[in-house]
C-alpha cells in the first residue's frame, strides 16, 4: 500500500470536513468515513504511519481524528 496516496486521500477528507462549523463533529465525521470506506489494511497502514512518524504530513484535523478514534479505527483481530 502506498502511504503517500493514503495521506493524499486522508487530507482530501480533512479538507471536506474542515468546512463543518463544529470541529468535534468534523473529527467524528472523518473517523466515521475512514471506518466505513477504508478497508482494514488501509486503516492499519495509516495508524502505523501515525505511530511511527507522528502523522506530520496529515491535515491537522485528520490527525486529531485518528488520535481521538484510534481504538475504533484499528481493525479487529480475527480469531
What can you see in these coordinates?
This protein has one domain (3-73). Helices cover 73% and strands 0% of the residues. It has five helices and no strands. The chain is globular and about 30 Å long. It starts with a helix and ends in a 6-residue tail after the last helix.
Topology:
Blueprint: H1 3-18, H2 23-37, H3 40-53, H4 60-68, H5 70-73
Helix pairs in contact: 1-2, 2-4
What key phrases describe this protein's structure?
single chain; mainly alpha; globular; 79 residues
Write a concise synopsis of the structure shown.
With 79 residues, the chain is mainly α. Helix content is 73%, strand content 0%.
According to DSSP, the number of beta strands is 0
- Biggest sheet record: none
Structural class: mainly alpha
The span between the termini is 24 Å
> N-to-C SSE series?
HHHHH
Amino acid at each position: 500500500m502506498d502511504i503517500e496516496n493514503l495521506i493524499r486521500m486522508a487530507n482530501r477528507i480533512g479538507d471536506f470536513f474542515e468546512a463543518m462549523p463544529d470541529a468535534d463533529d468534523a473529527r467524528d465525521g472523518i473517523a466515521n468515513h475512514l471506518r466505513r470506506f477504508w478497508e482494514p489494511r488501509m486503516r492499519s497502514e495509516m495508524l502505523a504511519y501515525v505511530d511511527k512518524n507522528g502523522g506530520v504530513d496529515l491535515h491537522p484535523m485528520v490527525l486529531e481524528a485518528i488520535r481521538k478514534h484510534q481504538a475504533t479505527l484499528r481493525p479487529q483481530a480475527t480469531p
